[in-house]
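User: Please predict the structure of the protein below. I'd like the answer in structure-token form so I can feed it into my own downstream comparison script.

Assistant: Understood. Taking the following sequence of 160 residues as input:
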Amino acid sequence: MNERYDGFLMILIGVVVIILLVWRLNRWLISPGISQLPGVPINERIQDHPAIELMEREGYDVIGGKVKINLTFDTDELTLQSRLFIDYVASDDNGDLYLVKLSRDRLPMDFTGSGIRDRLMPFMVMYPECAGLLYIDLNENAVRRVTMEWSDEEWTLNDD
């Protein structure tokens, strides 16, 4: 009688292991790919700027200076080049990293969903290991923390 329970227990453990393996394989297949970029670029040279004092007052430590990210786009006819700039890299008390963008007078930031998407999302998508982005508005003496979450929810119009 004891051997019957041993066999049943072995079959049960086997079924559980197979279910877990199938579940992990499915999660691995539908998960987003690993970022092809190296980690967050940190420039050891940090130029002095009034924004550094403002970030430190808000509890952030500046750990990296200005970084230029070169981009190349291949189209059917042309190869196009552009670049993005990160003004600073900062960390908070928990050690989370934040990319920092400074406000620009000639290019004001529109704090709407589409404005943030168009101007700031490329940085957060390029470096998903960052906790977010700090937008420093020197005119208002404000540090705005911007984070982003993906939603699997489909947005549909109400077809009443």
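That's the full token string. Residues 2-30 form the longest helix (29 residues).
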